[in-house]
Amino acid sequence: MDGKRIEGNEVYALAMCVSILLFAPIVVSQPIPADKSQVEAWFNGIIKPVKERGTTLDPELVQAETEPRIIKVMQGGGGEFDTITKAIESVPSGNAKRVIISIGPGSYKEKIRIERNKPFITLLGDPKNMPNLTFDGTAKQYGTVDSATLITESNYFVGANLNIVNSAPRPDGKMVGAQAVALRVSGDRSAFYNCKIIGFQDTLCDDRGNHFFKDCHIRGTVDFIFGSGTSLYLNTEIFVVGDPEGDPEMAIITAHARESSSEDTGYSFVHGRITGTAKDVFLGRAWKSSPRVVYSYTEMDEIVHPGGWSSNRQPERADTVYYGEYKCTGKGATPATREKFVKQLSDAEAKPFLVLVGAITESSSLSNILSTKSRDLLSKQEKFKPEERKKKLRKWRGKMMNKN
Fold first, then answer.
1. What's an example Gene Ontology biological process for this entry (predicted)?
2. Cα 87-125-355 angle, rounded to 5 deg
3. Residue 48: predicted pLDDT
4. Domain, as residue range, for 38
5. How many helices (H) and strands (E) does the chain have?
6. How far is CA 89 from the centre of its chain?
7. Domain tally, the chain
8. Which residues of 177-207 are buried (b: 16+ CB within 10 A; e: fewer)?
9. DSSP H or E stretch at residue 282
10. Selection from 310, 308, 311 nearest residue 334 by Cα
11. Is there a contact between 1 and 95 (Cβ–Cβ < 8 Å)?
12. Please, what sign has the CA dihedral across residues 332, 335, 337, 343?
C-alpha cells in the first residue's frame, strides 16, 4: 500500500493511535450517568487498554490495528496526495490494516466514497482547523442516498474532526429531487467524533449497521437523520434550520425506517441538545411503520412541537411506533402535551437505551466501534508534538411517502 511509516516526533502519534484505537470497553452494561458532567469520566472509565480487554475485540480488528499507516492529504503540497479521493484510491481492495488518512485544512470539493471492500479507514482532521468536505449532489442527479458528499460503505470506519457538508440549495418544496445528503453511513461498526454534518433535507442517512456518534453537530430541516441504522448519539447537538416561509411541516428531525418490531434497530440520543431557528419541530415521524427512537437526558429548546412526534398522518401507526423520552429537560420537553402514542419511559424501560450493549445494540458491535475510539486523538493529533500531550488530553419528504 502506498503510504509512509512515521518517523521522529510522529512516532509518538503512531503509538498513541495504536493504543487508543485498540481500547475497548470492559464494562458495557453501566448506564450513561444522568449528570452530564460525569459523562466523560464514565466514558473514560469503560475504555481500557488492550491488555485488559479480554476477548472483547474482533480478531480481525486486533490484527488490523497492529501496524497502522498514516497517509497525509494536503492542498498545495506537503502531503502524499492533494485530494481525499486519491488517498482512498491508494488503499487496496481487501485492505486488512488500519489506514489513517490525515487531512490538512481547507475545502475539499469532492464526492467521496469508501467502498465496502476497504474497511479500517479513518478520516482524521485537525480539531483546530477542521477540513471541509463539501459537494452539491442532489437526489435528482444521483438518487437520494447516493447524493451524499461522503459515503462510507466499509466496516470499522472512523471519522474525526470533519465538516461534512452538502452545499446544494435548500429545497423549496417545488423542485423535484432537491434532497441532498451530506453523509451516508452504510458500513457496520462505524464511529464519528467531533464532526459537523450539515445540510437541509436528508442531511444524514444513518443507513444500516451499528454506529456511534459523539460530540457531533447535525444540522438540517426535514427528515435529516433517516435510515435503518442502529445508532447511539452521545452529546450531539441537533440544530433545526427554520423555514423562511414558516411552514410547520418543514421541521422534522428523524425518519427511522424500521418496518417491524422484530427488527433490532433504532436511534438513541443521550445528553444532546435540540436547538435551532425552526418552530414546531417534530422529534420524529413514522416514515415507516415501526420506527424506534428514544431521547434521554436531552435538552429541548422551545422549538419542539408540543405533541413532539408525528404518526405521519397515518393514525394506525400510533400502534406500531416506539417513540420514547426519558428525563428530558428544557421548554420543549413537555410530557403532558405529547401525543398519546409517545412513551415516557420508566428507569427500567430507559436502561437499554443508556448502555453500550442494550435494546438496540444487543451484539458486541458498539464494543468494537469503541475499540476504534480516538477521543484523545481528537485533541492531540493536530500537531503531533510531544510537548502538547499534557495540554490537550422534508416538507414531509416533499409530501411524499417514500424517499427516492
1. pectin catabolic process
2. 110
3. 64
4. 10-380
5. 9, 29
6. 24
7. 1
8. bbbbbbbbbbbbbbbbbbbbbbbbbbbbbbb
9. strand 282-285
10. 308
11. yes
12. positive
Is 3 inside a domain boundary?
A: no
What is the domain-level CATH number for residue 161? 2.160.20.10
274 neighbors 298 (Cβ within 8 angstroms): yes
What stretches of 98-209 show up as alpha helix (H) in DSSP?
139-142
**Domain-located, residue 404:** no
DSSP secondary structure of 225-249: EEES-EEEEES-EEEEPPPTT--GG
**Greater pLDDT, 47 or 190:** 190
**Does pLDDT of 380 surpass 50?**
no
Distance between CA 71 and CA 125 in Å, rounded?
12
Say if 140 falls within a structural domain.
Answer: yes
> What pLDDT digit, counting tens, does each position of 105-126 carry?
999 999 999 999 999 999 999 9
Residue 281 in grid coordinates:
419541530
Long-range contacts of 1-4 (CB under 8 A, 24+ apart): 1/69, 1/90, 1/91, 1/92, 1/95, 1/97, 1/99, 2/71, 2/80, 2/90, 3/69, 3/70, 3/71, 3/80, 3/90, 3/99, 4/69, 4/70, 4/71, 4/80
Does residue 38 surpass a pLDDT of 90?
Answer: yes
In a domain, 336, yes or no: yes
C-alpha cell at 36: 452530564
Tell me the average pLDDT of the chain.
83
Q: Give the SS3 label for residue 264.
A: coil
Which cell numbers hold the place of 44?
Answer: 473514560
Neighbours of 5 (CB within 10 A): 10
**pLDDT recorded at residue 209:** 92
Helix ranges (H only) for 274-364 are 347-350
Catalytic residue among 188, 202, 207, 223: 223
| C-alpha span between 161 and 130 (Å, rounded) | 6
| 212-266 pLDDT, tens digit each | 999 999 999 999 999 999 999 999 999 999 876 656 557 999 999 999 999 999 9
Give the pLDDT confidence of 333-367 residue by residue, as tens digits: 999 999 999 999 999 999 999 987 543 443 334 55
Does the annotation count 223 as an active-site position? yes
| Under 8 Å between Cβ of 183 and 203 | yes
